[in-house]
Amino acid sequence: MARSFQELGKKAEDLIERGNEADRDVQINKANVSAAAAQASRARAVMMSTSETDADGNSNPAYANARTQFNIAQNQLAASQRALDAAQQAARQVRQEKGAHVRELERHNQIERSNLEKLRQLHTGAFAENASAMTREMVQRFNEAENTRVALLKSMGIEATADHIDNQQDSVSGNPWSGGGFAALDLSGLAESYRGGSGEGLPSGTGGLPTPPGGAFTAPRQIAANDPYWDEMADAARNGKDLTPYLQHYDQLAQHIIDQPMSNQQKLAELKELRRRLQVVQDLQNAQIDAAALRQHGKVKRLPVSDYCDMSRRYIENYLEVCRDNLRDLGIQDGPAMEAALQQIRADLNRRLDADLAAGTYALCDHPTPDFQALAGQARALYAEHPPTYRYTEQQRAQIRESVRMGTVTEREIRTIGRDVRQRYDTLLKTRNEEAAALRDRRTQLLEDVKHASTRQELEALKLRQKLLVQDENNWNANYDHPAMMQKVLSQFRPMGTPHGSSAQVYLPDPSQSGTSRVIRAINDAQAHLPTDWVLASEQRPIVPECVERGYFYNTGDADIIALNRKADRMQACSYHELGHRFEHMYPEILKLEKQFYDRRTAGEPLQHLGPGYDKSEVARFDHFVSAYMGKDYGGQGYELLSMGMESVYCKSYNLAMDPEYENFILGILAVM
Question: Model-level pTM?
Fold first, then answer.
């Protein structure tokens, strides 16, 4: 995955700080080596000036002492030199890391350039008005990355200038010449000494146009003004042709100017002329793009309604791909987080298209740019990718678990937390119901409009709107299924879901048993909606999946057997149920809370057989649980509270709203344990 700019910038800051510390260490150790060398020299001089024997021929104690001091000084010098070698090696290592990070930043900006070019091409038509806001945001991110890259280079002692893209350009800001190659030259002084990759200085090995007749780049003066390709490039710009080979040629031309035996003032004059001419070509293509957009917009208004709908739906799909690239660059991986964000954008565009079809307007052509930062933040919160602030931090959750072990936090406090979760769930449920009512009203109105349609064109538009409604209903179902809703609410309290974008759970299936692939899919789907630290803990222990008539959980020591009900309408609920037993086994604090809740609720309740269909040994304390099975007794070694509660809140197997105290208890465990 391409890392987000925030991560890249943070790493650059860290590398600069580490580099500064490494340089300080080198200087300190150099000073230590100099001091040790001076001390060794003085000790040697003292030793050499002292006689080994006294006047009587006996060993001279002063000489022995001087020799000892000399040996100590030599050892100190050797130690100082080793420390200096280590410090220099550390500094070289940081410098290598800086170089690698510069290349990563250059790759980041190559992707951004590609995104900008895609955006430019995408909006060269009826939807050109949508480009400006998105482009400004992408250009800003590009320029910030450039500033980071240049700061990193300067920390390495390499002079560099940021390769900025003009943030004032309109929807064509993604043109490849508006922020590359020539922009990397400091036109206020000397040409830069560093030209690395394709982000600083000029690209190397890019090919370019063949050498013109008579030889290229030979005139010592007016190189830019006399280049033979200007007219050809200008014509290509007017006609909307690909300018890449010309740009490669002018990259080479700029490099040639830099290498000429001219004064710096002459070089700068040539480079400024080169940039001026490229700006002229850019303006020509901008005008061509704007004219094409106006012509296309006029054509759109003359299209039959079905053609406009088809064109708009193709546009939406293409636009979503550009949005996907934007979100990738903000650190969102392909996966559930990405699809949720894109689904939100699609729903908005579909609503605009539906309004166009209903009113005969073209509002989709002027839709606003999504707030990608907000979408990315939302996705991170829902899918535990670099999350924002949660209601409970990791440290706070650890303190709560410790307090449960110490007995200072009990099931009562957990129920209080669960009540907060339930209130937020009710708020989301209200939104869900309002959107459902709006969809029902749309369907009712469309059916009524179809009855009274008077023309073939009107009927055709209504049928297209019905298709859009079906798509919106499918989106609604995906957004508001019970697991997704529970995940959205709990993500306000803690990281939720699989942290890698896909499951890393180890499975040990029996090849001779059928249905295990379905079991694995059900478990993975359940874990994608559970607390992230639970999922990470689960990944440390293999699961043996089985497909059976009645689900069960069994700990074998080396792995856990999770057997799920083979019935299609029960398997998913069963996966939450059996995972509840797994986490109850993995977290003793949960078991302790269950015991407190169970003992309080069932105090004075007799054990009773669960009834027909159960073994005689299966007994429970019924209390007023929604299902008697929730009170099943295992002699304090386990409970059905978390397991039955999880399948109820995620799959609505049982209506826990009838037992708010129990529901709050389960929601509290999911929020903080």
Answer: 0.52
